[in-house]
Design a protein that fits this description.
Radius of gyration: 26 Å
CATH topology of the largest domain: Rossmann fold
Low-confidence stretches: 621-626
Structural class: alpha+beta
Distance between the termini: 57 Å
Mean pLDDT: 89
Shape: globular
Number of helices: 16
Number of strands: 35
Helix content: 25-40%
CATH class of the largest domain: Alpha Beta
């Protein structure tokens, strides 16, 4: 049986989103369930069962399920991971606490450093030492390592073990010997060695990444195993895949071994969906705006691809302060994420000022209007009060919203303490969250040296289309795109992203001194590993695309830039091409080159991917049906007009070529799009709403 049904599942902080693609019928079905925080698999199973019923099929017809999760991120932020023991080179025990010996805020006398994942008493040292060039300076003491490992397990009762030896990125032999001993001694206790988890230069970051992987490993392994078993019990015999932080798809086996690569798993799907729509709409540059129930994510799409980076900070003590979190060497989609979602709570700070977020109502109890026990007003409550949401059509009418309770909460918790009316308080909540998101977007653009005038905006997520028009106006953008099924677009991102994997090997050398044979061996090993993993994901060898790059810098600089590397076997004849590739990349970033200073390479990367899946955007919920799209009207608040009678459209009755003007509200099951006065909207051939904003 040739199975051609795939399901994407996005587990968010408030909702779990579902998209089912039936390639034989050319149909897409969508769904949304409240996330079950105690056990996310409950919502996954219930939502999958429901969407299969709506699609009129059964679990045995499903080829694969692709999902992303915030479990890794939450585990690190909440510090709910495993008890980890670290074994390292003698003399390197305190690398985690020493870090870079840099204060992220020079003038804060009460500076709070991010707590280490492994306390000092669980950090053990053994005799071994590699030189930076990989030469063995001190042989590995296997007996001492075995004794230390047993002590951590038997005496300290650790739940996972991390091994990070100095310069193992250059020569992993000692770590490989350690791995064999751990297999023999630990039984089922998971472990991580740095030469597999983060084979890159810089001891602190590599040690931090290795420990973080071990820290989340037991919980993630348990979760994935439970999910697999429960899906199989429900009749699913297809494959289960997971999205990586860099936007690729990987196997469950790889996710179990290196769960730290999933730290931005969920948000990455939104960026991949935005990249897909960039190609679909022939829009080169997008600001991807994904606002869900808990957070808002902004990502830049340039040339149809999201920006990526190869380092990440998790669990920052101060959200926007670089250096205040745990440094991780992982490939991630470069985005900014803030606590601004539909569930973000309004509160009054110690100075008597209205604040919104980052604390969220989540799915339990959720905003006040859900009627599940929430007491403090959230952004969704303010949006309901202002008329943006239909209390009788939330989730397609499945969930009724309570306006009376909302007004009472806004008055008691916000309006009265500030001496405002309920309307003024609701406006304040809505405007503050918009301004917070605009400030974060401006900062992201400024940090990357990008001009906002080069970008249009694509908005999705449950709350994204509600706030997109206001945000686009603040940023002075001219065009806004809202896809059909915007509320679950991130889940669609799992199904349009190709199977992919990134590998890295550090080999530090000036370009003129490169050992070409060693370099080719590194690329050959990475390519072989990548092809093997993609084969497990069902990608044939002929369909694999290989892209190579290097991180280079001028000698004496403290940072590197990514430089494309020519494909094929490298040799001394490649030297001039590598130099010119470096100068071209440097010129694009800094608009200057310095040709009389030496160049050195730090790390070499290989990215392998399968083909981009092609799907038909034919939503099975009734898109394109004949009939009048105008449902009626209701009073909606806009800053330009106050409350005004606003046209309300049925998203599923809009067809290609339809046009209308704002003010307008467009309702669909999983989201609502709000269009302000003066805007023009056209429905394109893919049923996207193309909104042209008025000149400010």
């Amino acid at each position: 049986m040739n199975k051609r049904i795939r399901i994407g599942v996005d587990v968010g902080g408030t909702f779990t989103d579902f998209v089912l693609v039936d390639e034989d019928r050319g149909l897409i079905f969508t769904g949304k369930r409240l996330t079950t925080p105690d056990d996310p698999s409950d919502a996954i199973l219930e939502g999958t069962k429901r969407i299969l019923k709506e699609a009129g099929t059964d679990p045995t017809a499903v080829h694969s399920i692709v999902h992303g999760t915030t479990l890794v991120t939450n585990t690190l932020i909440e510090r709910t991971g495993a008890k980890v023991g670290l074994i390292t080179t003698r003399g390197n025990r305190d690398a985690l606490e020493m870090g870079r010996e840099i204060r992220y805020d020079l003038y804060d006398l009460f500076l709070e450093s991010p707590p280490t994942l492994v306390p000092r008493y669980l950090r053990k040292e053994v005799a071994e030492r590699m030189a930076p060039d990989g030469e063995v300076l001190l042989p590995f003491d296997a007996d001492e390592f075995r004794a230390v490992a047993r002590e951590l397990v038997d005496k300290e009762a650790v739940e996972a073990v991390a091994v990070c030896f100095m310069h193992s990125y250059r020569n992993p032999d000692h770590e490989r010997q350690a791995k064999q001993i751990l297999i023999e001694e630990l039984g089922d206790i998971p472990f991580t060695i740095s030469s597999e988890a983060a084979p890159e230069i810089r001891e602190f970051e590599r040690t931090s990444t290795t420990c973080a992987n071990a820290y989340v490993q037991p919980r993630m392994q348990t979760y994935l195993k439970r999910l697999e078993n429960e899906l199989q019990a429900a009749g699913h015999d297809g494959a289960l895949y997971v999205m990586l932080s860099g936007g690729g798809i990987t196997t469950v086996e790889s996710a179990r071994a290196f769960p730290i690569q999933l730290i931005e798993s969920g948000p990455a799907a939104g960026a991949m969906a935005a990249s897909y729509y960039s190609r679909l709409t022939d829009t080169e540059n997008f600001i991807s705006f994904d606002m869900g129930g808990t957070t808002a994510k902004m990502c830049l799409i340039d040339g149809g691809k999201p920006d990526r980076k190869h380092d990440f900070e998790a669990g920052r003590v101060r959200r926007f302060m670089k250096g205040s979190g745990l440094p991780l060497k992982v490939s991630v989609v470069d985005m900014i994420e803030i606590g601004a979602g539909g569930g973000s709570l309004a509160n009054i700070d110690g100075m008597g000022l209205l604040k919104v977020g980052p604390r969220s109502a989540g799915s339990a109890p959720g905003p006040v209007c859900y009627g599940l026990g929430g007491e403090n007003p959230a952004v969704t409550d303010a949006d309901l009060y202002l008329g943006y949401l239909n209390p009788d059509y939330f989730l397609g009418g499945e969930m009724a919203l309570d306006m009376a309770t909302v007004e009472k909460a806004i008055v008691e918790k916000v309006a009265k303490p500030l001496g405002l009316s309920a309307l003024e308080a609701a406006i304040g909540i809505h405007n503050i969250v918009n301004e917070n998101m605009a400030a974060a977007t401006r900062m992201h653009l400024a940090e990357k040296g990008r001009d906002p005038r080069r970008y249009d905006m694509i908005a999705f997520g449950g709350a994204g289309p509600v706030h997109a028009y206001g945000l686009a106006k603040i940023l002075k953008l001219r065009k806004l795109v809202v896809p059909l099924g915007a509320g679950v677009t991130s889940a669609l991102g799992f199904l349009v992203a190709p199977p992919a994997i990134d590998y890295v090997r550090s080999y530090v050398s000036r370009l003129e001194n490169l050992d070409w044979a060693h370099l080719n061996t590194l690329f050959s090993e990475m390519e072989a590993d990548a092809r093997a993993l993609l084969a497990d994901a069902g990608v044939s060898g002929d369909d694999v695309t290989i892209t190579c790059s290097a991180e280079m810098r001028h000698v004496g600089q403290g940072f590197e830039i990514s430089v494309p590397v020519p494909s094929g076997t490298l040799s001394a004849d490649s030297l001039s091409d590598l130099r010119e590739s470096f100068f071209d990349s440097y010129q694009k970033l800094f608009e200057r080159t310095v040709r009389d200073v030496g160049i050195e390479a730090m790390s070499w990367r290989l990215a392998a991917s399968g083909p981009n899946p092609e799907i038909s955007l034919n939503f099975g919920s009734g898109s394109g049906e004949s009939g009048d799209a105008l449902k009626g009207s209701r009073q909606v608040y806009f800053p330009e007009t106050g409350f005004v009678d606003c046209s309300v459209y049925d998203r599923y009755a809009l067809r290609t070529g339809d046009e209308f003007a704002g003010p307008a509200v467009v309702e669909e099951r999983e989201s609502t799009t709000v269009i302000g006065p003066g805007a023009k909207v056209e429905v394109d051939k893919h049923l996207n709403l193309i909104c042209t904003l008025p000149k400010s």
